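Write out structure tokens for Bystin.
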Amino acid sequence: MYDESDQDDNISDGDNSEYEELEIDETDQQILDKFLPNAPKERKTLADIILEKIALQTSDQSSSIVKSGKSINPKVVEVYTKVGTLLSRYKSGKLPKAFKIIPSLPNWEEILYLTHPENWTPNATFQATKVLVSNLKAKQSQRFFDLILLEKVRDDIRENKMLNCHLYMALKKALYKPAAFFKGILFPLCESGTCTLKEAAIIGSVILKVSIPMLHSSAALLRLAEMDYTGPTSLFIRVLLDKKYALPFKVVDALVFHFIRFKQDERTLPVLWHQSLLVFVQRYKQDLTPDQKDALLELVKIKSHYLITPEIRREITNSVARDLIEDTEMEQT
């Protein structure tokens, strides 16, 4: 359950000690632009984006969140509208008790919308995330992340070219439910086709800092490996690989296919792609079969980077293949 005494409450407005971005090669931006959709998307306000996502996900429900005011007791609407006004000015202190009971309500999404999350301050968003993550089920948390938290984070990065420290801490708190975080934040961000390097660097640093169970990381890697490629995907793959988990062979195999499919791609690949391939072979070279090693060596003859590719070749050629290790272990038994 939610703990009022959480030490994260002590973050001040000027405290950026937790904030961090991963370093990215600036020359990658022009290359990565070639992997983004050609048609620029119309710039929308945060409120527009949240309303559209809520309407889309609730179109098949008899009671739409967008029209929630018509189906809820007017006194309740008044209370939570006032709560929303408080959250739009919130800087510190305890959240209203009316907000803390939201996770226990059957129509929690409708009630939450009455507080107008698009207007919450970053401080309020962090505190709200703590309450909701601690008390909602994973599926419900996923919806909150996707509908509200992700868009608030992206909007803040667009406006300020960095992320407010309270929103950064909200992302860290969201990772307490890793499956919901990946399904509600990471995958939608990658699949949007508009994830920027700045967004990837910030969210990647959150993933790097927080301990994530191996099974969740493995599932995330498998999903990323099978997605349509965008440059930031390479950064997230690299970050998860850097956690050095013992991955199932199914995930290793999927990552091999992820890389070798670029053999026929005529576009110049970003440094991020080469870096993620290097980290992959460094961490999992002994999990590769002889055929996979040969395929990767053929790949880097076509897709090469003058500094990184020699290291990739060295890692592959100076390792024992998976099948050979298994044969040796069988002989010893």
